[in-house]
Design a protein that fits this description.
The complex is a heterodimer of chains A (423) and B (528). Chain A has 423 residues and is α+β, with helices and mostly antiparallel strands. Chain A has 10 helices and 16 strands. With 528 residues, chain B is of the alpha/beta class. Chain B contains 19 helices and 10 strands. The two termini of chain B are 46 Å apart. The chains are: A alpha+beta (423), B alpha/beta (528).
Chain lengths: 423, 528
């Protein structure tokens, strides 16, 4: 070994308290460190600011755009969409989009540029556009009529009717109540939200290993190509066509009102709704968690709205309950950091246990430090085994608590660790 | 059918993550979604299934793997980054073993993590870092039915007014699935179980035979389904629609009754990334500037209002075993009751997000392991099956039209279409129509134009992911989601402009291809 680098040790006292500036000073004094061995000079203990950081989740600093990911761009910068670019406000097609969102609500959007919107607003007697919703066809009395804000380009329309077909019409009233149409939408269907009244029953047989192509070839010979597959098969079967898949022996034919009632008791839509409530929370939380815990830096790195969306730890767990809701509290933990450096090829043991050096030969290890007396010999041996250096490190910790402080009750049976126990 | 068979159980796991890959940054926070899911869910599942295979168990499980997830699992850059991530975790676990040397409560847990991470690393390398290949192996052994999903997990009912978009989402998924697993998919997990009848012609074209809806998708079918959700329906286009069972869903999902809330299980939030000294954990955080999760957690859920107890692994595994038994007993009762009513063996189909098992519910993979073992060894009344296997045994089913539905809040599309995210759809609508124009205008493009057309297809697909409106709705990382939608649409607009009015900028195109590199063989002609 050509040069010996010093093996240093510092003792660190981890502190988490609600009022860190005041509380932080106390434990450093109380949790008596072993200053003789640990501090290189016998001066008043200088605790670096970083050691006084709270252990509670800290609100991360918001960094400016790009700052966090300043390194390592391997893709041409211009390939990423120019950060300043924005999507067009509108495309000016003047079309009306109508989409059912659920059995009760429709979403309407009209693609008008600001100029087009202004033109129609100006032409309208009441200075805004009107959205009409029709059921089944754009004729007769509208199902509903909404006077929209002059600057609006979309609207959520309540229809409250599942299983129905709706169309939209955008226009305005000219003076004297004359209606001028700007655009009509395609039809949209609201999903049904009730059991069907149709209780007819039909069965069909479709072997899963028989390819569609094969089935379609069979039915195409006899039925128009536009008929859905199952209907085509049913038509053929009704016509006595041979060569269709054999049906399973029909144990389906018996079905009594008693069976119907018994099954209805097992499964009801009320149950479905209850499960939605439960599964929604969990599903969303799972995925939200994946996104949430990892969202903060990206959020600030894009440099848009700066607020952090909240640490996941502040969420209450659906399974575990919220954390950190108690009144004044104070956790005191002590950790020992042993760090140093040697030849990168050397072998180093601490307390008899071989440790892994970083590629540059440095190392840094921490130990949670319960109360007790500790010996930690540190030994470095050169790669050829001919040279070695060692340091005898001894520590002790004795803590006295007043009030409810200790978070990690120490095991009274804990003895000074032997080298064998460290490995 | 075995004479003792009273019914069937089909366990379906849906695995999906949006395509998040940022080669332009050395470290990218959102890429950790993938790394965490690999460590906590996908690798543990592979290990559990390997155990079943090793013991020659006759198991049947259904797993849907979304094409975006497969693309990420196969991507060499993300594989490298995952190994870096896992090595970082191993290093942290080793530091933890040392740090807790004198701490009797935590030392065994530090060792547990160290061993677990090493074992996961070994599994990862045993499969050549290729988890798609791992799942393919189980499929080829006849133990796993792999479903596909829409190409980028688009909410299909909101694309239904543009059939070429539906078609492209399904056929691109089919093609990529075939590329990944060597055979076309027999079943599909419709993203968010969102179904409208308009998807069926494309599913039929793709050769897909079955899909899953939420319970009301079947209950509200027309005509009324005789057997409720306990048998599939054949739709008019000849697909089999399977409905989700409520009871088994509630037992796992429910906030109050659900298994994952047992106080003995590992707590999800209490992580050393928050608990330990910031300097110490900093090198192991997803980004070094903010406290976050490391994956090492030492506490159990514990009862309400109590100080969190130290995680007791044997007790947690005991709980997983009890819950597996409880789940099995409940299914046995359910099947006995239903087979009495229906006079035919009922099918219980229980779908879950795969990431529930392991990521959220740490003991989930063990629960699954115990449950499947009990099903295989301890009873004969219930046969574990997959939807295609069930159809093979029971090819005759009632014909009815399922109802439009999803498994999202209130059962339809509200989560993906509301005040927070409606702005996406008008842009998508224009881009979709332009894509169709492009596909029709360039039936035989020159090589550079073809590259631009394929990239335009990728950008449009990525912009259609349901994940972005979902995130905007939950408000968790809205700026990232907004940026993703915007970036993909802007790249699409640029490509469209270059193809139609200016000329293709090869250098710029190469940069975009290097970033959004999924589906190398995407067929843009599907939009024609």
């Amino acid at each position: 070994m050509k040069a010996e680098k010093p093996i240093k040790a510092v003792k660190k006292t981890g502190v988490a308290a609600k009022a860190p500036p005041v509380a932080a000073a106390a434990p450093a004094a109380k949790a008596k460190a072993a200053p003789q061995k640990a501090a290189p000079k016998k001066t008043a203990l200088q605790v670096p600011a970083i050691l006084l950081e709270g252990d509670a989740p800290a609100t991360p600093a918001v960094s400016g755009p790009g700052q966090r990911y300043a390194l390592g761009s391997s893709v041409p910068a211009e390939a990423a969409a120019a950060t300043g670019a924005e999507l067009p406000e509108a495309y000016g097609t003047e079309r009306l989009l109508l989409t059912a969102r659920d059995p009760h609500w429709l979403y309407a959007h009209w693609d008008l540029t600001r100029e087009q919107q202004k033109k129609y607003n100006t032409a309208a007697a009441d200075k805004h556009l009107v959205l009409r919703i029709y059921k089944d066809a754009v004729t007769g009395q509208p199902f509903s009529e909404i006077h929209v804000h002059p600057e609006s380009r979309n609207w959520f329309v309540h229809v409250g009717l599942g299983g129905a077909k709706f169309l939209g019409e955008l226009g305005y009233y000219k003076t004297a109540g004359r209606w001028v149409r700007v655009s009509t939408s395609d039809a949209t269907l609201t999903p049904p939200d009730s059991l069907s009244d149709d209780v007819s029953v039909s069965f069909e047989t479709l072997p899963v290993d028989l390819q569609y192509d094969e089935l379609i070839r069979i039915v195409k010979a006899a039925v128009s190509a536009n008929v859905p597959l199952i209907e085509a098969i049913q038509q053929l079967r009704a016509a006595g066509y041979r060569g269709l898949p054999d049906t399973e022996s029909l144990f389906f034919e018996r079905w009594t009102p008693e069976q119907e009632r018994a099954l209805a008791e097992v499964i009801t839509m009320d149950n479905v709704r209850r499960v939605w409530m439960g599964s929604l929370e969990i599903t969303e939380l799972i995925r939200r968690h994946l996104q949430e815990q990892l969202s903060s830096a990206a959020l600030s790195s894009w440099g848009e709205t700066g607020a952090w969306s909240g640490a996941a730890s502040s969420l209450s767990s659906p399974f575990g309950g919220a954390e950190r809701k108690k009144s004044f509290w104070f956790n005191v933990n002590a950790e020992l950091i042993i760090y140093g450096a040697t030849e990168p090829s050397a072998a180093v043991t601490i307390g008899g246990r071989q440790i892994k050096l970083r590629p540059d030969g440095t190392f840094s290890f921490r130990f949670a430090l319960p109360d007790g007396q500790y010996d930690l010999p540190a030994v470095a041996t050169s790669s050829d085994g001919t040279d070695s250096r060692s340091a005898e490190l001894k520590f002790s910790r004795q803590t006295q608590y007043r009030g409810d402080v200790g978070k990690h009750p120490q095991d009274p049976k804990l003895k000074t660790p032997l080298a064998a126990n460290v490995a | 059918m075995h004479p003792t068979t009273q019914g069937y159980l089909s366990l379906v796991l849906h695995a999906h993550l949006p395509f998040v890959r940022h080669p332009e940054h050395a470290q990218f926070l959102e890429e950790n979604w993938l790394y965490e899911a690999i460590t906590e869910t996908y690798l543990p599942l592979v290990q559990v299934m390997d155990g079943w295979l090793r013991e020659g168990m006759d198991t049947r499980l259904t797993l849907s793997l979304s094409p975006t997830l497969c693309a990420m699992l196969l991507d060499p850059l993300l594989q490298d980054r995952y190994v870096r991530h896992l090595d970082g975790l191993i290093e942290l676990a080793e530091k933890e073993m040392l740090r807790t040397t004198w701490d009797k409560a935590y030392a065994p847990l530090a060792r547990m993590y160290q061993e677990r991470f090493h074992s996961l690393r070994k599994t990862y390398f045993d499969y050549g870092r290729n988890l798609v290949g791992a799942f393919r192996k189980f499929q080829e052994a006849g133990k796993l039915e792999i479903f596909t999903c829409a190409a980028t997990h688009a909410l299909l009912p909101l694309l239904a007014d543009h059939p070429p978009s539906l078609r492209a989402q399904i056929l691109v998924a089919r093609d990529y699935h075939r590329h990944c697993f060597g055979q076309p998919p027999r079943g599909i997990w419709l993203p968010e179980c969102a179904y409208v009848e308009g998807v069926e012609p494309c599913l039929q074209e793709a050769g897909i035979r079955c899909f899953i809806t939420d319970t009301h998708g079947i209950l509200h079918a027309r005509p009324r389904p005789r057997y409720g959700v306990f048998a599939p329906l054949f739709t008019r286009h000849g697909l089999a629609a399977f409905g989700r069972d409520l009871d088994s869903a509630r037992q796992v999902w429910s906030k109050h009754e659900g298994y994952p809330g047992d106080p003995r299980y590992r707590d999800f939030y209490r992580d050393i990334g928050f608990d330990l000294d910031f300097d110490y954990v900093k090198p192991h955080l997803p980004v070094p500037t903010a406290r976050s999760f490391t994956g090492i957690k030492y506490h159990s859920i514990t009862g309400h209002g109590q100080e969190k107890l130290v995680y007791d692994r044997p007790a947690a595994l005991q709980a997983a075993g009890e819950h597996a038994q409880h789940f099995l007993d409940a299914r046995l009762r359910q099947v006995a009751q239903l087979s009495g009513i229906l006079e035919r063996p009922p099918l219980i189909l229980s779908p879950y997000d795969a990431e529930l098992f392991g990521h959220w519910w740490y003991e989930g993979p063990e629960f699954l392991d115990y449950l499947v073992r009990k099903l295989v060894f301890d009873q004969q009344a219930i046969v574990l099956t997959t939807p295609p296997d069930y159809l093979r045994r029971h090819p005759t089913q009632q014909v009815a039209a399922p109802s439009a539905s999803s498994w999202g809040e209130e059962g339809y599309w509200k989560v993906w279409l509301n005040e927070t995210n409606e702005w996406i759809y008008p842009h998508l609508r224009i881009a979709q129509e332009r894509m169709t124009e492009l596909a029709r205008r360039f039936p035989t493009p020159d090589p550079l134009a073809e590259r631009a057309l394929k990239q335009a297809a990728r950008e449009l697909l990525l912009a259609q992911s349901s994940d972005w409106p979902f995130i905007l709705r939950t408000g968790t990382s809205p700026d990232y989601a907004r940026k993703r939608v915007k970036d993909h649409l802007l790249r699409f607009i640029t490509l469209h402009e270059q193809l139609t009015t200016t000329r293709v900028d090869e250098t710029w195109l190469a940069g975009v291809e290097a970033m959004d590199n999924l589906f190398p063989d995407v067929d843009y002609r599907y939009w024609a």
